[in-house]
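Here is one chain, start to finish.
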Amino acid sequence: MLGPLLYVLYTTELQQIVMRHGLRLHMYADDCQVYLSTYVEDVYLALSKFAACVVNINAWLNACRLRLNAAKTQLMWLGSSQQLDRVNCHDVLVLGTNVANSDTARDLCVVIDRELSLAAHVTAVYRSVYNQLRQLRPVVCSLPWMPPRRLFTRSSPAAWTNSLLYCISDGLLRRLRSVQNAAARLVTGTCRRVHVTPVLRQLHWLPARQRVVFKIAGLVHQSLAGAAPMYLADDCRLLSDAGRRPLWSSSNDMWKLVVPQTHNKHSDGSVSEAGARRWNDLPPGLRRPGLSFDSLRGSLQTHLFGN
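Its structure:
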């Protein structure tokens, strides 16, 4: 058996096959995602390119004693509701198997929907966390205070993928906040009549919205420090590196990031846009070079609790 890293190295040639067809490939172990962008008018042309690419991928896998499972293949169109209504193709033939369009797909631990609203992901987290809370409730009274707190923090999917939730609606955010409040009350034994904000401070749990900002700022710091993957580091450019002169009134502007122009809400949640804006809004002391990641986490948490 090959581990995830060895498997990726073993299947490196897949990247070249996909690129020859003008598509893109993202892999994690044996989970391969082939994607491309197209106009609504060119949907059938895109499908023909996709089908030809899948045939070549299957031929390469067979030569390497691997197998493409068409029964587990999913196809999903991503776009706005107006764009999706104009797509008339509802399935595609993949190696003799008709693959129907999916409304949702699981990408590692994230449930992606067609409009990238993350509503399905929030619903999955909501159900999963409340299920955990129901299982913990009978035993939490017999445990010391710290173990249930650590157990929930490490096992709860509410703590995962926070940086993806930057542009979710207020209604979805309220659902996540209700889950967090219920967990805090269970861990500390606080009744519902007590205000939850002091409880969150006691647990050092940032509220849902501030937690998203905390994650994004941490990703930007690691990108600037060279500790993040290249696809994230390339989206974080300092004003000084971009050839832009800082304002004469502030020497701290040179440690700010370039904020690109965006044209839709999906781009507003990207690392290059959301990360740059959140980073530039931080106090100069948190953006200074040489600040360690652990120091940033502590100072940033204090700053966000104050706001």
